[in-house]
Input
Amino acid sequence: MSNTWRIYLLALVTFLVGTSEYVISGILDKISDTMGISVTSAGQLVTIFSFVYAISTPILMALTAKVERQKLLVWGLGIFVIGNILSFVLPGYSSFLAARVIMALGAGMVVVTALDVAAKTAAPSKQASAIATVVMGFTASLIIGVPLGRIVAALFGWKSVFGILALAGLVAMFFLYAIIPRVQGDKPIPLSEQLAFLKNGNVALGLAITFFWLGGYSIAYTYISPYLLDVAGLKEGMLSGVLLAFGIASLVGSKFGGFSTDKWGVFPTLSGGMLLHVIALLLLSLTVTYTHSWLPIVILLILWSFAAWSSGPTQQFNLVRIEPNYSGIMLSLNQSMMQLSMAAGAGIGGILVDRVTLSSITWVGMVGVAIAIVVVSLLKMRMNASSQGAGEYPGMRSKKASIK
Output
């Protein structure tokens, strides 16, 4: 089999993992109804997954650094499959919560190892493309996995989603074992050494951007299904199509973010995308309050998704250029921060739904993104000061006189 197909297989695996994480937001109301729990309690299924993913992944990857990559990939997917099987067969909220923990332990190992294998097995000139393809698999779970999960849940019950993920994971394990070449692990980098980068002010500010940007997004997105049904007044039959449009907009936004970063620079892309993010949430909140017409609501949802995900690739590049000699560590720290921010956002969103109103999630999410814009400005000022005091900033093109 050609290496291209191996990369696509890795992308498919990350698609399965991404679907298991994001699909909860698409079926939150169904989980709440069938389990007899509040929407807030159902939302904590996102919180626990993201929190466990964020905390466990760097620890597990540090402990398994020397393990051969193909074997680690199969093991990680096996843990993920067990979590999905338990989600499918065990009754009750507590059991499902425990299964989500197991699922998250395997998911983090699978994604990081898949990226590592893609980089190591691709030709030197195609490493970036290989990594992008694997990341695209994870992104596609938002585009295809969430609306597809909603359709499956409507036809066969929401638990069937995890049964299908378990079966698909088992099949993928067989192909990974048969097709993926043996790849040696790396020299372990102690976790303490990775965390030491947090003492760097630029790194801390860069990660803070991720936290407030994605945290603000997660506050609203975690509860998107009940929000659209109960607050915006959308019909059940429309929801899957709306979620699909939302996902497609995220892909277009991500592509545009990469293009914009190359053309206009990091800070204009981050500031512009996040400002549009805030405007979209503001207009959505006002539109939902004063009208229940579905067309403007769907248009604003698409604008929100486009704006939110335009910041994704830009933030990845932003952190890599802060410490260009330690790109792997920067991406790992950012991955953990992304999951922590999603956990925090889902948790805060749950408090708002429980103690304020469901309609408040977009307003507070807007505040989180606004804080991220302020942090972007602080980082820009700090980096401009560094470049003026010590010459051009590492990782920037020589033709640029200031930080963009």
Observations:
- The radius of gyration is 21 Å.
- The mean pLDDT is 86.
- The first helix runs from residue 3 to 26.
- The domain at 1-188 is CATH 1.20.1250.20 (Growth Hormone; Chain: A;).
